Predict the structure.
Amino acid sequence: MRRLRSTKIIATLGPASSTPEMIRALFDAGADVFRLNFSHGVHADHKARYDTIRALETEVGRPIAILADLQGPKLRVGTFADGPVPLTAGQSFRLDMDDTPGDQNRVSLLHPEIFKAVEVGTDLLIADGTIRLRIEILTNNSADCTVITGGDISDRKGVNVPNAVLDIAALTDKDRTDMQYALDLGVDWVALSFVQRPADVAEARKLIAGRAALMAKIEKPAAIDTLEEIVEISDGIMVARGDLGVEMPVEEVPGLQKTIIGEARAAGKPVVVATQMLESMVFAAVPTRAEVSDVATAVFDGADAVMLSAESASGDYPVESVSMMDGIACKIEKDPRYRTIIQALHATPEATAADAITAAAAQVAETIGAAAVVTYSTTGSTTLRAAREKPVVPILGLTPNAKTARRLAIVWGVHSVHTDDPTNFADMVERACRIAFRDGFARAGQRIVVTAGVPFGTPGATNILRIAWVGDQRDAL
């Protein structure tokens, strides 16, 4: 089940992709990680999908990562007495704390945090930004607005507040319940929505208590102001371009995507690019050329993973969407400009022995034409450090910890392997040669570069580099 690409693929499961047969087909097509979207479905649905993935994992003998994506706070208007209401540019419209059904002149907005955070002149965006209202008169519980961009407004449409930090926790009561359920299931990653400040990530990390890796979704403009701190205290980052594209000018999103990827790469944290990557494939068998270019850009930038949402969860062509993403990534990584661009964005190693050895391993592998870089790590830190270097050869991430192996399945270039704990360094090198041969990364007579931290089990203590010859391992398999 070796992938012929370094960039990983995340497929969201949903009504179109929840049977064992379909999940197996998505995996065979190239999915490395499966996303459980807790914005939809009930716990029983997610458990059934989780159990199917773990059964598949046992069947294929490969670690598969499962990502639980929390819904986060949803800011919405109330309901309307007589159905959708047309709003015309220039007319007046009120948002208030009265839960009476709305009409042509007003509707409820039962979020006092919004009224506290905004001021006269602030624009409010309704229905993914298709309707824009500007506040003219503001009180503690109402906002009289002028319609700037009109359209039909209907029940429970979402509200976005650009350029404001809302006094709302990233974790709702529903999120806390969902997160506890997901952790009890045994998910590998938890994605936190509505991150505005580092404190949001710190609160979630405290609750997770090491039971899963934490991925901060950058979807609020406020998060950009403290991006470096958010990256530092997160295990991974997701560029969630949906709300970013609503709350700020869309032309700024591509540049921000590159900035976020760059920050995550410099920190050695996995980074995922998400939202509308192959959106047209929800209903069409082939994507638009612009969508292909969008996926290609994320691959060129060195994103660890690209993600499918509705395309695989509820679309008409879930398997084709994964296959298309796999094909794009494979093609781009073979492009002669790929390595040049990847290396141009390479971060400078830190002045530590661990970074020095890891950087040397990538250089040695290229110089001697090694077949692979092999890392051995209990926590995954050595493997993450190797992935940060973006070596020209694959990375075999060996670990005695099944949870670590699964978490590493999302990381660029890493073929993670759950293996027994070696008795000593020599045993580990022999094991690395055997697994490299078994999994098709090295042939007899080729060399591999092995890095590890001794004594084993010491996080971050990468301190050994070894070049090893791979012999004919057929008798050992």
